[in-house]
Design a protein that fits this description.
339 residues, alpha/beta, UDP-galactose 4-epimerase, domain 1, 2 domains, seven-stranded parallel beta sheet
Length: 339
Amino acid sequence: MRKNVILVVGGAGYIGSHMVKTLLDHGARVLTLDNLSRGNSDLLPGGEFRNGDLGDATLLDDIFSNNNVVAVMHFAAHSIVPESVRNPLEYYENNVAKTIRLLRAMVEHGINHFIFSSSAAVYGEPVKVPIEEEHPCQPSNPYGMSKWMVEQVLKDCDSAYGLRYVSLRYFNAAGADNLGAIGERHNPETHLIPLVLKAALGQINQIKIYGTDYSTLDGTCIRDYIHVSDLIQAHLLALEMLLDGAESAVYNLGNSKGYSVRDVIKVALRVTKRDIPAVEEGRRPGDPPVLIANSGKIHRELGWNPMYEDLEDIIRTAWIWHQNDAMRGKQLKKGTALI
């Protein structure tokens, strides 16, 4: 009998590659599907790989026909908010329409377990902090709306086809694998912690602080940072839950702690021991003052307990990765063989 396969869609990306590594470490057979439009093939830690698009019905039919796929973990999405505002149709096509094609293929092949990478962006401007799963969902941009739309599709697929799912609403994923072999690399980079560390490495001239007049202690935005390894452990628990026959569910994933932009820079200064030039800019449209998760539900129901609750620990793992990645980049430019 063919061994059960976990299909990881978007497994060459930041979070997806960490998921692939963890599944492999647990002895699973993993098949990654990624078109590498925003992923990095060198981040893949192993398993089987198919270079292709999640919206390719022929490719999906081939994958599901020739592999005993028991669950799909979906990480492939465009996720840059300003870009989604400029080009909403691209986001609705990639994040919603292509996901529907993936779900259709799953239903046709009788695959009934789905882990969805959602986002705190589904909540929009919070009316209450910390944010619980029952908080009203009023996305304020096409990216958040695309995630919310998929969640509605999943509800209907559950009712109509018995497709069980877990939707995990991320707050701010950060950090890297503790061995420093894989980590966060986006092009363009828009996330605060990697940008701060790039400034420390001299890869960018300065970090921009958008807004210093918010109603917070130091005037800058406060966000909830969750280490990618803790995020992945939650995915593993959710997958085990579904494969054991549980019903569909939605969970927040955050540390339930808030750190300001200035907090992040101060901690990065302490970790890197390097200069991090910063300049103050005006607010960006749509940036709420405070976003903090209430993750009590996944604690209670799945026994999830983050290991990296301190911002310094999170940034330290990211710093190791960014230094290693910068060194690899220099060696490749010089033509040095990597061992």
